Amino acid sequence: MEELSYYEILEVSRDADKETIKKAYRKMAKIYHPDKNPNDKDAEHRFKLCNEAYQCLSDDTQRNMYDRYGKEGLQGMGGARRSNGGFDDLGSIFEEMFSGFTGSSRRRQNPAEMDKYPLDMNVEMSISFNEAVFGCEKEIEYRYKNSCDSCKGTGAKDAKLSTCSTCKGQGQVFMKQGFMTFSQTCPACSGVGSSPAAPCQDCKGKGFSEERANITIKVPKGIDDGNRLRVSGKGNISKRGTRGDLYVTFSVIPDKHFQRDGNDVYISIPVFFTQAVTGATLNIPSLTGELELKLDIGTKDKQQFVFRKEGIDDVHGHGKGDLIAQVNITYPAKLNDEQKELLHKLQESFGIESKPHESVLDSAIEKMKSWFK
Length: 373
Prior knowledge:
Blueprint: H1 6-10, H2 18-32, H3 41-57, H4 60-69, H5 84-102, E1 121-127, H6 129-134, E2 136-147, E3 161-163, E4 172-177, E5 180-185, E6 194-196, E7 208-219, E8 228-231, E9 246-252, E10 258-261, E11 264-272, H7 273-278, E12 281-285, E13 290-294, E14 304-307, E15 323-330, H8 337-349, H9 356-370
Parallel strand pairs: 1-9, 11-15
Antiparallel strand pairs: 2-7, 3-6, 4-5, 8-9, 10-11, 12-13, 14-15
Helix pairs in contact: 2-3
């Protein structure tokens, strides 16, 4: 985009008159304006280029210099510097653009029809590890909002509203910085454009009441911490009687023995060193019962053994995870004389195999001695 000429940026011919250039700029600025493209870096960049192009082409002196020498010819003029009149012209264009957003070309919703709260709502639910794994039914007690009948949800006595004096009923206020005009929600009326002439006595001006409800939901097996479940038509109620959805966000209490990672489950298995050396067979717990774990002879510390399809069912029905048993080798804290003798005899029975350090360390010791000769 940077290599395009100013005429190409605004999509006009080189012989376009000022009115054509202005119309083209208005069109492009509306497309790429930051308010219409929040967090869009490309649109923001294109919007700046449109400004730069219009500032140059709408000024006869700069345009003539640009036509003869290109952008290099503008450097001595301070780039695309404008007179105050040029900046004011841009400002008026933005005011027209914003007024178009809120004027007759786009009808603003009647404040009497607007709800004071979102219809969808969220509640938190804590469940145990096994409830998350196998699914369950849970009862929820919660409070939802219902539009006040007396004031028709406006919060005003007899539903009578007066125009907001701050924004003059537009719901937005505008701020001008240089040639740019920015809008924000009116802080006085929160964007409604009106305020109650007198507060409703039944709802104390809130426009709604809160009611209790109890429902029973079916928690699917495999639900995980942070997952949400939508319960259709159980949220807040609007002025028109339509109802939003209730979202339940789950918090799963960790288990003492099993640790979840997605649909896989890990369990730590303490193994005595003699069991690891001899390759013992152990019975270990799983999610559905006991499993037989056959250790390798000489099993290493932290070695893992995988049991396929013994994990958690995917909440969306996409298969099942694994159970991973991780070995944690333990050693005796102390030995009696008999145990020491038995271990010594065991070590001697392996011969040179029981002394793997000798071949490595002896050569290292000899090398180290040579350093001091």
